Amino acid sequence: MARIDIRNVSKTYPGAATPSVADIDLAIADGEFIVLVGPSGCGKSTLLRMVAGLEDITGGEVSIGGRVVNKVDPAERDIAMVFQNYALYPHMTVRENMAYGLKNRKTPKTEIEARVAEAARMLELGPYLDRKPRGLSGGQRQRVAMGRAVVRQPAAFLFDEPLSNLDAKLRVSMRGEIRRLQRRLGTTSLYVTHDQLEAMTLADRLVVLNAGRIEQVGAPLDIYHRPASTFVASFIGSPAMNLLDAEADGARLRIGQNVIQAGAGFAHRGPVTLGIRAEDLHPAATGLPFRTDLVEELGAQRLVHGFIDGQALVLALDPSVPVRDEMFLTVAPERLHLFDTAGGKRIGTTDVRAVHARVPA
Asked: Which domains does the chain have, with CATH numbers?
């Protein structure tokens, strides 16, 4: 296990007008599970590959276990990677695939056998040790790839969208396996995904990336309940947070012709972006007039799409709650999120990145 420090790291590809990764500053505590999340092209895989040594660093430095590794070969960084494509040798058995890296390192045969047996026990691969990859399901192949990483006993695990090739049901079960395994081993882990649900369920802390920069860092529920920007608000959560154009006048918020109350002590005036989670809206006798456009039945939940004063809105209701073509909605003042219209930053909060990006030494 080891702490990972990423200090002002940047990556600019030759001929590119802008950096793919810019000024990333992040400390990952020993044994912590960090998830990098963001849309395609945000720089999350590039950052992971720089930590692994598969991409050169344009600026800044990366240290693993207190050792700066900018110029250290990937094989010497004491990390193990798990990729989305498994990268198994098709002509080798499961046992041989898991042992291959240890054999290359001249690990004694008895130690190899013991490590492979222990990893197979943890990942329930015992019955498949003599099979070749073509005889395994997708989930079993991914477990073999994880087993190959586990037997290395590295300082850190690096996961590059390892569940992307699995179907939805298998992704759910594999998420649980990865989290249980990491907790059992206590190995520092850096995990990349574009799936915000996957990120929320796995992470000790989330790192939300946007256009190569950190948008927010924090515990999953902290980010969900207090997004630092409209980007984070719209990316984290399913359905995405409703974002409405509004006009603030102290504690009064106007949406078109409709007025609602903001939280106590709010004194902002002028245009704002109002954020409301779908589950925080409730039908009532009076309130914001809502016109229903579409209803999605999800079994345990009902998503109702519609409009308030011409602006699109989604609310999440219990299936037992009746839906009418026109109804009124209410939301508690403490459930409102207010953002600066020009820059998209949260109003009335400290800089979330500055607060959460660093962890104690």
From this structure: 4-229 (3.40.50.300), 231-345 (2.40.50.140)
